[in-house]
Amino acid sequence: MNWQHDLNQLAEELIKAGKLSSARWVDAFTQVPRHVFVPRFWLQDKNGWRQVEASSDEGWEAVYSNRGLFTALDDNQLGISSSSMPSLMTRMLEALDIQRGHRVLEIGTGTGYNAALLSTFLGDGDVYSIDIDFVGTAAQRLASIGLQPTLATRDGREGFPEAAPFDRIMATCAVSSIPLTWVEQLTPDGMILADLKTGRCAGNLVLLHRLGPEHAEGRFVSGWADFMQMRTGTTADVPATGQADDHGQPECSTTRITGRPWAHTVPWFLASFRLPAGTGFGMRIREGETWWTITSPDGSRAEVRDIDTGQDRDVLQFGPHRLWDDIETAFDEWEKAGTPDWDRFGFTVEPGAQVVWCLDTDQSWKVESGTS
Ligand SMILES: C[S@@+](CC[C@H](N)C(=O)[O-])C[C@H]1O[C@@H](n2cnc3c(N)ncnc32)[C@H](O)[C@@H]1O
């Protein structure tokens, strides 16, 4: 197994796909052996989860391909740490315009792989990385290839005040709002790149520039990213799914929205401002047919039939809240605005208010700041 050869091939693949372009990040990327940081990982198939060693043929192939790999599961078999897709890491590192001499804070050390990329480019003296867990193992793996960035175990919402200010902060877990502490810990020209998710799959990477001690603003980034949600202890910041009961007879209608509604990422994000907090989604088989389900904590549920005949699809709505009506309204508004893509949306962070805005309309949406 020749990691250098396989890593160079992966770099070529990312370059061809336009996910890695700058010489400095190609150089760093091709110096960091990924199997050191992902010696084993979890794969899920119809029989459940199984652990795969990177030293096996199957494991090696996965580690040196552009795949995100789960590296830790909790007691409920939910992924709580992973090595993100290499292309997502390179895309974020390039989007943040990291220059030599910058001090960078990463929120979400995980395996330590991204901290290794940062340390290889910047030198480990300028790299800081924190995680709510896993930091000991990451430190050992980094040290095994001669890197010693400053790592700490703590809740990422706090940032790293004793090491601030930072020129760049990148979060590799998703947040439901941007902690003001991050803005406070930036240098005057500092920038933050984080995955803002107001609900499950509802949001994307946003690149923020510091405009004042407690004021940052910027745009969402083209393309798509979906990090695991930041945890508070063992609780996900945004619940993964709602539980729903059958509330008697459903209200029946049809819809012209195709596919899985959450796969239309922009209008799904806009719908999250209408849907109840904690709305989740899943799948259900009814009389042998697949239906996509959307459920909220009050027991409301919407189901849409998974057929693609080119005709309108059946929708069933149960419970006190008409979830599908909210989704339809958000899709309609998005279409009226000319179907703006992610880069037409921006975000402002100020004390007391975090607001998403659209460049094509005068609409804005307030983000609930929750515990962040
Ligand atoms: C996708 S992984 C990070 C991948 C990592 N950057 C790497 O290169 O392997 C997300 C990480 O966020 C961490 N995390 C979750 N909640 C957190 C919190 N409240 N504070 C800090 N880290 C948190 C998880 O423990 C997990 O390791």
UniProtKB/TrEMBL annotation:
Query: What are the EC numbers?
Result: 2.1.1.77
Protein keywords: Cytoplasm, Methyltransferase, S-adenosyl-L-methionine, Transferase
Report the InterPro entries cross-referenced here.
PCMT, SAM-dependent_MTases_sf
Q: What class of enzyme is it?
A: transferase
- Is Magnesium one of the keywords? no
Q: Which family does it belong to?
A: Belongs to the methyltransferase superfamily. L-isoaspartyl/D-aspartyl protein methyltransferase family.
Q: What is this protein called?
A: Protein-L-isoaspartate O-methyltransferase
